Amino acid sequence: MGELPGIVITGASGRMGQMLLRTVLASDKARLVGAVERKGNPWVGRDVGEMLGGQPIGVSVTDDPLEAFARAQAVIDFTAPAATVEFAALAAQARAVHVIGTTGLEAAHLAQISAAARHAVIVRAGNMSLGVNLLVTLTKKVAAALDADWDVEIIEAHHNKKVDAPSGTALMLGQAAAEGRGVALADVTDSGRDGITGARKRGDIGFSAIRGGDIVGEHDVLFAGEGERIILRHVATDRGIFARGALRAALWGQDRAPGEYDMMDVLGL
């Protein structure tokens, strides 16, 4: 067991953190060596197994990420932008693969993550599922085949606890559509419509966000032309697909050269 890559999960008490813990514990390809939470969280100092409702496993939750990362070959991180930037620097210091599923990252965050990637492997993606990454590939191909007379709209739906919009996956899909058309997404983004907005601008890529209930994740890419529409769709019904994809990325990153990678690299798409 000691030869298996050791994994640390950040944000251990959260919905995604708990799913990641269970996924690693169930894997025969990796071992859980640490779990991290912020100072003051009630999970700190407690055994992971007990906090998941089972028997003790000998791994306690800590609020000292560097101490945990020093024992790990990979860190899986679905937390918040400020925390992720801090974890990127610490994971690089520990030379651990850093798998980032955090969304809502801005340009300043990405610059700091890129700096950390000079020293360690970072795999970052707005969505870790195979299906979504195939959808990204299809979106780019369809966008390249259709001219700007076809309106593009990214429609996403998530649970009512999600704090950022558009979702990281929606932005991935918008970026794919923009690349297919050979334009910069920032120049053609159309989101947050409200009131008298005027007619839609030719060539814009629109975003619409729905929040409600316990929706895991639904993404539609709508290409709307005169008299016809093309709709590409992915529906996630189990958050486990993201956890399994993240673990796959953590294992793939072992022995890779330092740098920034994404799930397209991991999946060979």
TrEMBL record:
CDD domains per UniProt: DHDPR_N
GO cellular component: cytosol
Entry annotated with the keyword S-adenosyl-L-methionine: no
Source domain of life: Bacteria
Domain Dihydrodipicolinate reductase N-terminal: 7-128
Residues reported to bind NADP(+): R38
Associated pathway: Amino-acid biosynthesis; L-lysine biosynthesis via DAP pathway; (S)-tetrahydrodipicolinate from L-aspartate: step 4/4
Record-annotated active site: H158 (proton donor/acceptor), K162 (proton donor)
EC number: 1.17.1.8
Keywords: Amino-acid biosynthesis, Cytoplasm, Diaminopimelate biosynthesis, Lysine biosynthesis, NAD, NADP, Oxidoreductase
Ranges where the Dihydrodipicolinate reductase C-terminal domain occurs: 131-267
GO molecular function: 4-hydroxy-tetrahydrodipicolinate reductase; NAD binding; NADP binding; oxidoreductase activity, acting on CH or CH2 groups, NAD or NADP as acceptor
Enzyme class per UniProt: oxidoreductase
Family as reported in the entry's similarity comment: Belongs to the DapB family.
UniProt subunit comment: Homotetramer.
Name this protein carries in UniProt: 4-hydroxy-tetrahydrodipicolinate reductase
Natural source organism: Gemmobacter lanyuensis
Gene name for this UniProt entry: dapB
